[in-house]
Amino acid sequence: MYPLPAIDLLDGKAVRLERGDYAKVTVYHDDPAEQAQLFEEDGAEWVHVVDLDGARDGVAANAGIIERILRLTSLSVEVGGGLRTLDDLRRMADLGVARMVLGTSLVTDPELAQAAREEFGPGMLAAGIDAKGGDVKVEGWVQGAGIDALELAGRMADMGYEHLIYTDIARDGMRTGIAPAAYVEMAQAFRNPVIASGGISTLEDIRALAKVSDAIEGAITGRAIYEGSFSVADGVAACRSTLEVAPEGAERLERPLTLQDLEG
């Protein structure tokens, strides 16, 4: 399990949205590439970059910023937002990104998802499933897709995808904490570990995911880092903590938790 500090791009700046609402924007850095450098200096190995302009408008709009992040850092860059054609994906691959996230097109153009899987292989792709109340949202979270998130996860597993980012929209950018069981359930449907996104606000949230690390590949963190709840270095350490530190005299947990553990 590893942390992926997030850089959401809108109008050339690093921002965060409140529950995906483009009318509720907080700007955290005027230079996203400089922000990526700060993440790297603090121990990050990955950065999760979202082109919010592209996610909303359907056209990837921030290739120049992504190229600058790649040029100024040695971070593995995961990119999503506005990747709706094979040419969009090829452009990102040519820049040197490590992984590309398909979201809306998983629903609107499954043929693209299959063609991308065949051209780029499972290592360079991730299925991005954003949901509210279990219902998948697309087009920058502004439209319902009419499909259940768990069902879509199963479809992507059948297609051969090996990476999946699950975002709980209701919690994203709100620092309300997480529901580990939701990610375990998603991992079971996907038949692979998933990357958790949405609502991580404290180190305890990351430690809670670490306790179900068999189901969690990584954890995307944004606002909590920007606003100083914890540092990237702290997040790295917490991700590596797969054993719960028990109180003195108590029995220490010797294995990751399962969904059944969390339910009962």
Label the structural class. alpha/beta
Fraction of residues in helix:
25-40%
- Output the strand order for the largest sheet: 1-4-5-6-7-10-11-12
- Count of individual helical segments: 12
Shape descriptor reads: globular
Distance between the termini: 24 Å
Low-pLDDT windows of residues: 140-144, 243-264
**In this structure, how is the largest beta sheet organized?**
8 strands, parallel, barrel
β-strand amount: 25-35%
Tell me how many strands there are: 12
Radius of gyration: 17 Å
Instruction: Give the SSE string.
Output: EEEHEHHEHEHHEEEHEHEHEHHH
The residue-averaged pLDDT reads: 85
List the keywords:
264 residues, alpha/beta, 8-stranded parallel β-barrel, 38% helix, 27% strand, globular, disordered C terminus
Question: Can you describe this structure?
Answer:
The two termini are 24 Å apart. Residues 140-144 and 243-264 have low confidence and may be disordered. The protein has helices at 32-41, 52-57, 63-72, 86-95, 104-108, 110-120, 149-159, 180-190, 203-210, 223-226, 232-239, 259-263, and strands spanning 2-10, 13-18, 21-29, 46-51, 76-80, 99-102, 125-132, 135-138, 143-148, 164-168, 194-197, 216-221. It has twelve helices and twelve strands. With 264 residues, it is α/β, with parallel strands linked by helices. 48% of the residues are buried. Strands 1-4-5-6-7-10-11-12 form an eight-stranded parallel β-barrel, surrounded by eight helices.
